[in-house]
Design goal:
By secondary structure, the chain is of the alpha/beta class. Helices cover 46% and strands 19% of the residues. Strand 3, helix 7 and strand 4 form a beta-alpha-beta unit.
Length: 192
């Protein structure tokens, strides 16, 4: 038996609402594990899922389905984007927060893993990529790989923090050193 779309949507909306409330993106792994267990025990989440699958499978469904896509969904990307009730930042808003009001995102160039797109300011064009600060290495690798494959376009790596979990100053300094070594630009944005 499979979960119908309506019920799946209701469960995913609930997961995403709770994930926003607990600042999921910046939650340490141990707290995530605890939260997965709480969700499986919750009658409105795990209780509904276990009508269709064993509890162990419900946990995997939550983890490898909606929650794996949560960060992308917050920016309107992916299958689960429709379940974000109040996106914290669209691509244009994030780009303008990071680079300034004169920059425009070209949504048609958006790619995932990591999230990135081309942005423009007049004749200037760069690849803009973003992720929570703990995933900075993925941004670096994407930029290095693109350069190694012959893409000469400049890259801007945007590390995200939140008001509740700001990027530590020593981490920002480390990001700047890495960016200098890799010949890319790094920006830090808090509270998106």
């Amino acid at each position: 038996m499979t979960i119908n779309q309506r019920l799946q949507g209701k469960i995913v909306r609930r997961l995403f609402q709770e994930a926003e409330e607990i600042d999921w993106i910046y939650l340490p792994d141990q707290r995530r594990t605890e939260t997965y267990n709480q969700w499986v025990q919750n009658p409105e989440i795990g209780g509904r899922l276990t009508e269709f699958m064993p509890a162990e499978q419900a946990r995997v469904w939550i983890k490898d389905g909606p929650m794996k896509e949560f960060a992308r969904a917050r920016f309107g990307v992916g299958t689960y984007a429709q379940y974000i009730s109040n996106p914290t930042a669209g691509a244009n808003q994030l780009v303008r927060s990071a680079l300034g009001e004169d920059w425009e995102a070209d949504i048609e160039t958006r790619k995932i893993k990591p999230l990135r797109l081309r942005v423009y300011k007049g004749e200037e064009e760069v690849v803009f990529t973003w992720a929570p600060f703990k995933d900075f290495k993925h941004l670096v690798w994407a930029a290095i790989k693109a350069k190694a494959e012959g893409n000469e376009m400049p890259w801007v790596l945007c590390a995200l923090g939140s008001f509740e979990n700001p990027i530590p100053e020593d981490m920002k300094a480390f990001h700047r050193r890495v960016a200098q070594q890799c010949q890319v630009r790094v920006v830090h944005v808090e509270g998106v």
